[in-house]
Design brief:
heterodimer; A: mainly beta; 7-stranded mixed beta sheet; 4-stranded antiparallel beta sheet; 11 strands; B: mainly beta; 6-stranded mixed beta sheet; 5-stranded antiparallel beta sheet; 0% helix; 53% strand
Chain lengths: 114, 116
């Protein structure tokens, strides 16, 4: 089974621009979660989608948004980029049915905001 | 809300020595606990997870962890370190609603260095 894939792997943007990141989950997985990883804040939960519905959201400003398509692929969008948005963005997929399910992570998209 | 504390942001051991990475959790309900490993420029890989079936959990690459409710701990151990174990290790607790949303709360991570 193919793992979680994320595109692009690297991205350079300038302040004020917007960016869209993509995540394709493992086949059969209906839950996709997004996390931001920075040296200062560590790994922080952004949001989780299940069957095209956002089920949970972390403490991030409204500039961070996401969506999920009928094939479970997910995108996250960050508008009006700030320098502090530079981070590794990880997505994870699971069956989404119980809390003990393993979340499988993709390799991440490294975003640099200049 | 659940939380996780990892004691020691950096741990250094010699090759062949015992590896002990500490994790304490705070949870108002029986927790689901996970250890993930991250190699440079990669995503997270699951090492093992506790789901209340057994307090001693064995994972991949010779790692294991013991759930101790009285100490609210879930420390990760490996009897003999290998150079390839050098990586960053994250303890996480599942914080969501059963049958509902999924969310992992992570500790700050522990960077493991293995010296030859």
């Amino acid at each position: 089974k193919a793992g979680v894939t994320q595109t692009p792997r690297y991205l350079i943007k300038t302040r004020g621009q917007q960016v869209t990141l993509s995540c394709s989950p493992i086949s059969g997985h209906r839950s996709v979660s997004w996390y931001q990883q920075t040296p200062g804040q560590g790994l922080q939960f952004l949001f989780e989608y299940f069957s095209e519905t956002q089920r949970n959201k972390g403490n991030f400003p409204g500039r961070f948004s996401g969506r999920q398509f009928s094939n479970s692929r997910s995108e996250m969008n960050v508008s009006t980029l700030e320098l502090g948005d530079s981070a590794l963005y990880l997505c994870a997929s699971s069956t989404g049915t119980t809390l003990q399910e393993t979340q499988y992570f993709g390799p991440g998209t490294r975003l640099l905001v200049l | 809300a659940q939380s996780v504390t990892q004691l020691g942001s950096h741990v250094s051991v010699s090759e062949g020595a015992l590896v002990l990475l500490r994790c304490n959790y705070s949870s108002s309900v029986p927790p689901y606990l996970f250890w993930y490993v991250q190699y440079p420029n990669q995503g997270l890989q699951l090492l093992l997870k506790y789901t209340s079936a057994a307090t001693l959990v064995k994972g991949i690459n010779g790692f294991e962890a013991e759930f101790k409710k009285s100490e609210t701990s879930f420390h990760l151990t490996k009897p003999s370190a290998h150079m390839s174990d050098a990586a960053e290790y994250f303890c996480a607790v599942s914080d969501g609603t059963q049958g509902g949303s999924e969310k992992l709360v992570f500790g700050k991570g522990t960077k493991l260095t293995v010296n030859p």
